[in-house]
Structures are given as C-alpha cells and as structure tokens.
Design goal:
- With 381 residues, the protein is α/β, with parallel strands linked by helices.
- The protein has 2 domains: 3-127 and 365-379, Enolase-like, domain 1, CATH 3.30.390; 133-362, Enolase-like C-terminal domain (TIM Barrel, Alpha-Beta Barrel), CATH 3.20.20.
- The protein is built from 14 helices and 15 strands.
- It has helices at residues 3-6, 71-86, 97-100, 108-126, 130-133, 153-165, 181-190, 209-214, 233-241, 255-264, 274-277, 280-293, 306-315, 365-371, and strands at residues 16-32, 35-48, 53-58, 140-142, 145-147, 171-174, 196-199, 223-224, 246-248, 269-272, 297-299, 339-340, 350-352, 362-363, 372-379.
- The relative contact order is 0.16.
- The structure holds 2-succinylbenzoate and magnesium ion.
- The site of magnesium ion has 7 residues, from loops.
Amino acid sequence: MGPAEKQGREMISIRAVQLREIHLPLVHYFETSFGRTYDRRIILVTVRTQDGVGYGECTAGEQPGYSSETTETAWHMLSDFIVPHLLGKDLGDARAVASLLSPIRGNRMAKAAIETAVWDLEARLLGIPLSKLIGGVRSEIPCGVSIGIQDSIETLLAKVRQELAAGYRRIKIKIKPGWEVEPLRCIRAEFPEVPLMADANSAFGLADSPLLRRLDQFNLMMIEQPLAYDDIVDHAVLQRELATPICLDESIRSAEDARKAVEMGSCRIINVKLGRVGGYSEALKINDYCARNGIPIWCGGMLESGVGRAHNIAMSTLSAFTLPGDVSASKRYYAEETVRPPVTVTPEGTIRLSDKPGIGYDLDWERIERATARVRDFILP
Ligand code: OSB
Ligand code: MG
C-alpha cells in the first residue's frame, strides 16, 4: 500500500461486491405491536477495492411491518440497481456514497447495507477504528435493552430483573393496546427509579391520547413512536398533551425529517438507526443537527447480527448519542454470532470499543457459511 492509500486520499473504486443471505434463529422470539420474529433473514454485504475490503449488514426485516423494505426487496434493489450503480465508479471516499445513490429513491436500508460497508472499508484502509473515522468521541457506550411483548406480567418482570442484574442501564418495553398501563405499573412498583421507556411501534392513534396520558404517571424517559409510522403532525399535537417526551423512530428517515419534527414539536428525542436513515452520511447530519440544537439521540436496534451490531457500536460514539441505546450483547439474540468475538457487555452495562481497524470485529466465516441461504457475486473483469 503506497503513502497515498495510507492517507486514504486515493479514489475508492469498488471492484467486487458480494451479497449473502444468511438465516439465523433468534434465541427467543421477539414480539412487537406488528408481530413476532423467530428467525432472521439477513443480507451481509462485502465490498472490495484493489486492496481493501469492508462489511455491512442490511437491517430490513422479513416482513414489511416496521418498514416497507424487506429482506427480499433489499436483495432486489441491491442486485438490480444499487450494486450495478456503484461498481467501478470512483467514489473519492465513503462520504460520497450516499449522494451517488441519491438518484435511487427510498430503499434506505438496502443503500445503508453497502454505504456502511464502504465506511468500514475506508477505515480498514486507513488502519483506524471506524468510530474514529466518523469522528466518534467515546471509547465506551452505555447500553439499554429492548424487551418484547410477553405472554404474562410475570415473565416480563423476570426479564426486567435479569437484564438489570446483567448491568443494563435502561429498560425499554414494547407496548400495544391492552399491554401498556399494567406492565408499566408493575415494573414501576418493583423498580421505582430505573430508567424506563416504552416503544409502541405506531400502535396508537390520536384518539388514544387519554390512555397515553395515563402513562405520564410512570415517569418514563420517553415514549417511542406512539402514532403512525409516517407521521410528524399528530405527534406534535400529542406531544403538547403529554408530559412524557416523545421519541421518534420510524418517522425520521433523514436529517431534514429530524429538523422538521423538532421544529414542529413532534418529539424531544430521536432514535437513530443506520438502516432507516440510509447510512453514516445521514446519521452524521442528524448527529450534527441534534448536537447543535440540544436534542438527545440514541442508537436503535433491528435485531442485528454482529456485523450490524458492530456498526451500531461505532455510530453510538458520536457526540449527540448521550442516551443508552438498544445496543446489547450478542447472546441476547443469537447462540452463534457472525463476528468473533461476540459482542459482550460489561457488568457496568457498557460496551467498550475495539481498537482494531474498521468495525473492530472479525467475521466468523465458518459460522456464516453454515447459515448461508444464497450468494450473489458481482465482479468487474
Ligand atoms: O422499533 O426499535 C424498534 C426491533 C425490530 C424492529 C423495530 C424495533 C426493534 C427493537 C429491538 O426495539 C431493538 C434490538 O434490540 O435490536
Ligand atoms: Mg422503535
């Protein structure tokens, strides 16, 4: 590698891309207001230049319940549009990928899978951790957990006890109509002080505001995405009626969305997901806007395997990510991980950043091969 490459000043030109769908069973099913997930279908992306390699993970779900994107639509968009559009182009650096992809509308999770892989590649070429390349300011991040809807209050309480004993710094539970006041009341009765929040994944309407107002009594850190997945107007109305801060997840797809929601008073906190916003370039813009405007943000999760989890860890080091995210240990999700070592959480409820280049974890190819359902290679001659 010459000095120009070492400085990362050479044009990054992608010579090969591999898409790989893997199937991973979850340790426990995960239930949200839009349904249960037992098994993940995950697309891993490998990008190669003459002397570099980088890895990304697509966060699209199996069903279009959280987002309109699915594993299958992402495979199609990547194969037929996104990869052909990027192959052989001189990118300059990873920062250029998002704008190069702007002629392709929407499909942010598909785009982020490759955009994040190019950022990993650039950091590896430079020999530095990805968290440093993006300007992260933390070497350790605080962790929270997201606990799915349970069959009974007793199983919920058992999970809360277990996660707090493991050191996690805040508890989020999923809620839906009929599973909101009681679960939160019972958690608060046993843990009056624990940082607690609830995520509705759009399960309520503005007509439910009297019910949602009853949640104010539980002193929640925030309520996440109570109303429609594409709304910021009704959320502004609801926020005026609630003492509890609203956090938006699904509704925020870009820094412009973040600005509009904050200016309208639709939320006081934002959950950032790399996939939902199309990758690091947009996440960095959201971080800058929120840092300038005093809006706390945190990293959301999409039941990622190790590759996506490692990217979430890197993003969580940015300055405005001051709240614990849904970034937790691999073993909560998967018995066998895609990275080595698996992601672990300290007894203090933090993840320490790896000082290795790029995402900081090695891929476990033996494990990945066993989980592979299909592979498609794109190689320039
Ligand atoms: O809304 O934050 C969400 C999982 C899948 C889809 C949407 C969401 C979630 C989670 C789990 O809450 C977060 C995680 O632990 O990965
Ligand atoms: Mg959410």
